[in-house]
Amino acid sequence: MSGVRVLVGTRKGAFVLTADGTRKKWEVSGPHFGGWEVYHVKGSPADPNRLYASQSSGWFGQVLQRSDDGGKTWQVPGGERVAGGEDFTGRPAQSNKFVYDGVPGTHQWYDGTPHPWEFKRVWHLEPSLSDPDTVYAGVEDAALFRSTDGAENWHELAGLRRHGSGSAWQPGAGGLAAHTILLDPANTERMFVAISAAGVFRSDDGAQTWKAANRGLRSQYIPNPDAEVGHCVHRIAMHRSRPQVLFMQKHWDVMRSDDAGESWQEVSGNLPTDFGFVIDVHAHEAETVYVVPIKSDSEHYPPDGALRVYRSRTGGNEWEPLTNGLPQRDCYVNVLRDAMSIDALDPCGVYFGTTGGQVYASSDSGNTWSAIVRDLPAVLSVEVQTLS
Amino acid sequence: MIRVALPAHLRTLARVDGEVAVHVPSPATLGATLDALEAAYPVLQGTIRDHVTHRRRDFVRFFACEEDLSHEPPSVPLPAPVANGTEPLLIVGAIAGG
To answer: Does the model's pTM come out above 0.90?
Structure first.
């Protein structure tokens, strides 16, 4: 019997939501790491029971957690005690040690002055497609790290930060964060990273060197709207069968690239507003895309107080609102950039979480919706695993 | 043994209840106590002070015998009642934020 496991990161802990393949009856476990911000939880495609979670707080900094049983139990990699004993493993606990490679230098601060690179937190964890012990971390201040030992030790892949434009990167309102990592399933050497507010970067050599992939983006809020970097990209997504096609929710504008980020075209079309955070692609239809339009960058809630997912079956430009089961009045929540995910069942399930603590699910590709849970802390991230 | 009272979230992380006790060679200093604490509970590395610089995290404070040791250097000796185990060293998360 197939099933799904939805991994939810919130402002005050993580939750694991499980259901069988009908996706009608849900069990909720949590909070895990109660009281801590959990920016992201994600499972390994190579071993669904291997999960990684980014736990952080303003008081005690970053903690990495790992589960080997699908989220039933968790451990800090390398920091565990010998069971029942007074002795310890002797291994250093460095799973929360993110040290920039070499002399980190500076990026630009909000006022344009140089500001030292300082690690703040892990925004996004992207497990390898083939090795459960290999996982990438996108962090604030923007950089890419990799662990090859199940998150016990991390090393910066400094080629990204040393891209010639790195010293010119500036934070967005939420910080200077590497928040999206896409691994190309057809090319193990290729990956994409998106950074707010720098843009998209692509590596074709296993993360050694990177090129900016922002041609075609226009951002009115920067001095040169067509600049190579400086674009506040909120999220990018791809379909596994067609990794050269990317979709993007930029600060404003929904964009599409058909050449692996070499160039972008706007596909906002008839959306009521093209501001938003999430974007994702249908599991079986590479031209079917989902966004959640948000009114504006100063009003982080849906237009007209109506929560609507928009779906395009044409790869953009033509969008239809999906409202059945979603609140259509007095709704003023936001849906943050990592808070949408899609399962691989048929029909595929679509999931998203809100800053109001609801996690909505559709088991029919978006036609109808219901809330799995309604009263969690503000949701930061949603990932779904399809279990066989 | 030096008694150390941890904030609730760090007790959860270290999987301990109540105070912990660590052995610190005499003369017991603040820095040596933190070293011993992190050696005994490796998960606490990086949560009280920075991994590399050992700089105290901004929203963590150290108190002992009604003294604020937060701004003292690591070499500062702990007060005698803490050094002899009568009183605990308090590691406190600052009251801030939500």
So the answer is: yes
